Amino acid sequence: MRILSLGIVRGFIAQIIGTAVGMGLAVLIRILIGLDAWSAEPVAVVGALVGAIAFLFGTGVMSDWTQWALGHDTPEHHEPDPRLPGWAHYFNVSTDHKIIGIQYGVTSVIVLMLAGLFALIFRAELAESGMQFLTPQLYNTLMGLHGIVMIASILLGVGAMSNYLVPLLIGASDMAFPRLNALAYWVNVPGALLVVSSLALGGFDTGWTGYPPLSVRAPLGMQMFFLGVYLVGLSSILGSINLVVTTVRMRAPGMSWFRMPIFVWAAFATALIGMTATQLIGLSFMMVMIQRLLGLGFFDPEKGGNVILFQHLFWFYSHPAVYVFILPGLGIISELLPVFVRKPLFGYKWIAMSSMGIALVGFLVWAHHMFTSGMEEYLRVPFMYSTMLVAVPTGVKFFSWVGTLWRGKIEYPTPMLFVLGAIVVFLFGGLTGPPNGTVATDLHLHDTYWIVGHFHNTMFGGFVYPFFAAIYYWFPKMTGRRMNERLGKIHFWLMTPSFWVMTFGQMRVGLLGMRRRIADYDPAQGFDSTHLVITIAAFLIALSVLIFVINLINSIRRGEAATENIWHSRSPEWQLPSPAPAHNYADYPFEVIAEPYDYGASPAYVSIDPNAGKGPAPAPHGRPLAPHGAAGD
Amino acid sequence: MKHFAVVGILVLIVTILVNLLLGSIGLLPVQASAQAVPIDNLFGLHIKVISFLFALIVVFLLYSIVVFRRRPGDTGYGDHFEGHTGLEIAWTIIPLGIVLYFAYIGAQALAETRRVDPQAMQVKVTASQWAWKFEYPDYGITSDTLNLPVNRQVLLVMSSTDVIHSFWVPEFRVKQDVLPGADMVKELRITPTLLGSYKVRCAELCGTSHAYMESPVVVLEQTAFDAWVKDQSKVSDDPVVRGQKLATQSGCAGCHSIDGKVIVGPSWKGIYGEQVTLADGSSVAVDDTYLHTAIVDPNAQIVKGFNPNIMPPTYAKVLTDAQISDLIAYIKSLK
To answer: Which of the residues B21, B112, B175 would you substitute to probe the A interface, choosing the one with the greatest number of A C-beta atoms within 10 Å?
Structure first.
């Protein structure tokens, strides 16, 4: 097989050529307008941007659109190239939401390991006070990269769950806009590369928040960070639009809004946020880029700029963003609990509405990140009230989960362990939130390791644990094999205590006065032993994730075969054989006939055609499954 | 009902235990300011509610995990109930009331920390990468140490010369970002109540040496404070002594050591009279002219191995020529 038949390889080659061309273009323009031919920053920025665009063309994700622009028709479906082995499809552009979902998922796990590696490096440095092997500058870069690369990983993981699951759960053959879906995935790849490339270009010492004026003074790496985030954000917007349209338009017959699987509600609420808030972080970062490149003084006090403006724009996205990170995970918890408890989800409508409530309130609380920032003081109390409101819909979820567990017949395979772990970890993340929400206490807590601990609780409970649960649970649906239970349980029982030790340690030193984002700490504060313990715990978490990755890779080929409904779920995707067929329900049309989680009461959630999978497919593609009309770009 | 009774008792026990545990390990640093009192009280109340809610959910969860586990061979379903509107309304309304109450007392505690004493002593705080400078306009002195008399409110009037910093003394609790820009001067009021030595620690990431942007804060008896003021007000006849004072007040010591150790910039020890290689490969003698240029136009002659654009280019505006001469005299004295 020729290496060039892989889209990703063509993309990287195109990116290298495109970067060179872009740099040449920038030099040319500079000469034409009478500037010095070489100036590292503008030349590098134009090069990186053109390179990223070239990557997209190189992979072929733009080819249908370019063909249409040239007046040529393309087939409705691109069937996989039969000459390629199966694994190669994942390195090529595909419009199948399941392949795209797996592409998102694999990229997410790879990026997660990279971000974890950054953390391990600086955690080793923090194991004792004094600088051992990093410079403060490199520490700051690694700390910022850990943050932003983790965020990229989480967004990719959210993309994985939404893309793979939503069409399967609502009975659609694919997303509403399959080509847009492919673009939304592929734009992440040059985005992630650019962010990581900042390491080689002087780094950036601002953390992932990139506050000016510090980010205006930071090295060239800062610009690569901005560009990379911009591309990842673009992916978020495109993916969200696609998901909203898919959910609204492509539900199976009989699937009313309140008969959708609960995860779809979570993904829908998430997409509403992603679609409307992401623009603001793009805007805020673009303003700093422009200030650096062209000298406009948005955030330069000498030119009448205002540094607080950036923080408002930044947090207007970045606070709702944390709900983008956690809502899908909370959806996974609600989705999986009834399966393993063998009884209905307690308060379905309340859980569904609480996702929408969190998404809505999430837009009204951004300035709680700025209680000490020096913003207008009269904003602090109103934002305290709105912030405290978030606890209400979040509480509804916890109480409803407890109601679901009550008087069930609970079984504990690996996915369920991660669901229960998620509930407890996220509970602690949630409970440590209100002290940061009341302004007076936040004056002490802000920018300390307490916040680091609180945040890691919400991210582990809201994303990491549910994401692992989802992988263990749907892995058979993706591959027809199941992951090793013993290794899965070792993963859980190693990660969970380690995580608690880490997070309690972080909160402890934070309350006692440990600032966040410092490369070194004052030995007089007496934090050395706690930090050593936190570092050891972090390495144990990493070890557990390594066990997970080994299990994942090993199970693809050698896992125990699992083509049936091994979890005895009522959900439609489990009525299909595993791995799920290429066009989902094309050969298995179904109708929703009862409530989704009515375990023990009604015999089935959906009625699948008895002749399913035997006869010829009913229609080529635009089958009656999409009640409001067929999909198309 | 048996289940609920057992769980209810367990929730109560766990709440008390968690609360006792958290109360006994000393969660916060020593309380050294009047502003810390309402903050710590509110935090203590938070901890009580956290203990209860944590116990409530975790006990229900663990109890269900143990008691409602599937027995081997059982393939049946759990009890069939899909929800309870009354319960859902209750656990929406009650938490709503609690959080609104917390926001209300949170606002009161905030007002308490901002209570104005018209007699407050003013201190002008200037933050720069990576040093703090404290000016006492009432006494005409400038220091790199924040000395404060006990039980007297101090009004900190704060601004930054470069990026965002944040003023935080953990023992005082309150925190305020320090911003660049003439119209972005921020205030913070602190009433120290406990004698002792603390540190102001920059709490907003401000670049390379952020971790080390710490300065001593000393709370003194009024008499000791007055003595310190008197001592600081004296101006020495010796340019070396004046230069040494300037070096600490202007933040030079944050980057330039006097013992040969490289912090961020070159050490000053024995530097005068040496021949140094510059970043462009040329060589220059460290004399009065070179040092003057290095202070007022730091990027002009960067020594090889060090980075440009780190030292603030603002000293030409901040320091007078006489002060620069004092500084040079001081550097000259560091053999």
So the answer is: B175
According to the model, what pLDDT value does residue A620 have? 39
Q: Per DSSP, what are the bridge partners of residue B167?
A: B176
Nearest to B23 by CA among B49, B44, B38: B44
Average pLDDT along chain B: 91
Residue B44's pLDDT is what? 94
Beta-strand runs (E) in A388-447: none
Residues of chain A in contact with residue B74, where contact means CB-CB under 8 angstroms, are 409
Tell me the angle at which helices A221-249 and A262-294 cross, rounded to the nearest 10 degrees.
150
Query: What local confidence, expressed as pLDDT, does residue A613 receive?
Result: 60
Q: How far apart are CA A154 and CA A127, in angstroms?
A: 26
Report chain A's C-alpha Rg in angstroms. Answer: 25
Residue located via tokens 């959630």:
A605
pTM (2 decimals)? 0.89
| pLDDT for B299 beyond 80 | yes
Q: Which residue has the tokens 């109390």?
A: A381
ipTM of model: 0.90
Quick check: helix, strand or coil at residue A51? Answer: helix
| Low-confidence residues of chain A: pLDDT under 50 | 615-633
* Burial environment of residue B56 by CB neighbours within 10 A (0 to 12, 13 to 18, 19 or more): buried
Average pLDDT (B240-255) is 82
Contacts 24+ apart (CB under 8 A), A138-141: A138/A203, A139/A519, A140/A203, A140/A204, A140/A205, A140/A206, A140/A207, A140/A517, A140/A519, A140/B205, A140/B207, A140/B208, A140/B210, A141/A198, A141/A199, A141/A203, A141/A204, A141/A205, A141/A221
Token code pair at residue A492: 């859980």
Contact A473, A336 (CB under 8 A): yes
Nearest to B102 among A388, A403, A511 (CB): A388
pLDDT (average), residues B272-278: 87
Inter-chain CB proximity A374 and B184 less than 8 Å: yes
SS3 A313: helix
Q: CB-based contacts of A521: which residues, under 8 Å, 6+ apart?
A: A126, A129, A514, A515, A527, A531, B211
Q: Is the pLDDT of residue B272 over 80?
A: yes
Q: Would the CB atoms of A396 and B309 count as touching at under 8 Å? A: no
- Buried residues in A207-244 as b, exposed as e (16+ CB within 10 A): bbbbbbbbbbbbbbbbbbbbbbbbbbbbbbbbbbbbbb
Question: What's the whole-number mean pLDDT along residues B56-85?
Answer: 92
Query: What percent of chain B has a predicted confidence (pLDDT) above 70?
Result: 100
